[in-house]
Amino acid sequence: MSNSITNLLKGYDSVIDKAQFAFVPLLLLFCRLWVAWVFFNSGLTKISTWDSTLFLFEYEYQVPLLPWQLAAYMGTAAELILPVFVAIGLLTRPMSAILFVFNIIAVVSYPVLWDKGFYDHQLWGLMLLIVVVWGPGPLSADKLIRNKVEN
User: 3-state class of 117 per DSSP?
Assistant: First the structure.
């Protein structure tokens, strides 16, 4: 009886290992692309309505330590530049870590998010942490560059 349970567990582990081998790279790619899409679109919105963006940074957002004008430019630049790196998987861990901090600053700076968008920011933060911890996966520029350097 013990031997059949052991064989069953070994078979189960084998199936799970194969599923993870296929699923984890897709999960990492999904996390990268989803978060990049969200933040990049936010940056595009800020640029397309620049007067409104400046108004929000001056009167609504409460960015700590920075003048509101600098915060507006830096925030918009971060939302347009960092997601590109995350999406293609280039310098992925540091760019994802910076975007994770940016996400925290966005929540802290705009108290309305606590009521209406906090869940989304938690989800994006988790997705970014997954990428920071496990890396971009094999479907990334980082992996291609690493393979070229090692060969």
Answer: coil
